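Session log. Operator J.P. requested a structure for one protein chain; no other inputs attached. Running the standard single-chain path with token output.
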Amino acid sequence: QVQLQESGPGLVKPSQTLSLTCTVSGGSITADYYYWSWIRQPPGKGLEWMGAIRYTGSTKYSPSLKSRTSISRDTSKNQFTLQLSSVTPEDTAVYYCAEGYPEFNYWGQGTQVTVSS
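Structure written below.
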């Protein structure tokens, strides 16, 4: 069974870059046809898909976040990474990594990221 675990700082200052890593076990991020996504949920709001990296390494992003978002991977560590630049307090959320797109089959437990000075 695929398992995902997010890691990264829980507090980021405004204007800085948020960086999170998702470590995958029980499956390879290069396995055919798999997508690996980042999703977030701000307090009191619904889930927002941010972007995904395909098994080929190609990426796709939410249009509303595309200018600030970058997803990459380290195949030697079976990890993929989210970078969100120029953060503001509105980027405060629980951030999840997940397997799949547009439907999500496996989820990490989520990690709280707060943007505050």
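Operator note: The radius of gyration is 13 Å.
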